[in-house]
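Re: your question about ABC transporter ATP-binding protein

S., sorry for the slow reply, the queue was backed up all week. Below is exactly what I fed in.
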Amino acid sequence: MIHLQNISKGYNKTSKAVDNLSLTVHKGEIFGFLGPNGAGKSTTIKMITGIHSIDEGSITINGIDLKTDPIAAKKQFGYVSDSPDVFLRLKGIEYLNFMADMYDVSQEVRKERITSLAERFGLENVLQDPIQSYSHGMRQKIVIIGVLVHDPDVWILDEPLTGLDPKSAFTLKEMMKEHTAKGKTVFFSTHVLEVAEKLCDRVGIINKGVLQFCGRLDQMRDHFKSHESLEKMFLEMTSNE
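Result:
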């Protein structure tokens, strides 16, 4: 579970990238975080993961306060950033072993997980190659595998489907469903509204740092008194006043 309570982040004295945002992402839930470019999605995610400090408010991950116990809180989640260009000089298997070492995953357990995940994403034959030789999509997949190697309770994914081939995108979406079916949590940002409509239990829409809506798709339709697609509602909610 992720709980944000009145969090804010400003980059100057006159404006806030995120302004007094509160929401809760429950266990057993796929939560989609939507918004136009510059809306505050990535800033929010970087506060949740501890990359950015919080100016105001509080964040808890599975009940652990990120500010007072950051190490314990960070052990609860796996984070896929919006850029897969990391540790390019390492071989794929070296990167995955590094990630397993960071989370104290035993040799026996990591071997099984790496083998299983690499097969699901079609990377089993390139793990001995340097990551800099990978395509963008392959880099995205190796980062995802690295994040999942310690089997975190909470997945935090920033535009995770970008660059993935259709088969791998389908695999990741199925894995999200499998994860939440176990009573665990998925929080992901996306620009692909069709994905949010088909995949998410609830969505949050942020614009100009302010949460415009949080709830189920049918609740959003009731809010607009219509049966329009999420795309039309999204455009209406995030259009400039």
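DSSP finds nine helices and ten strands in the chain. The CA atoms of residues 202 and 220 lie 10 Å apart.

Happy to talk it through on Thursday.
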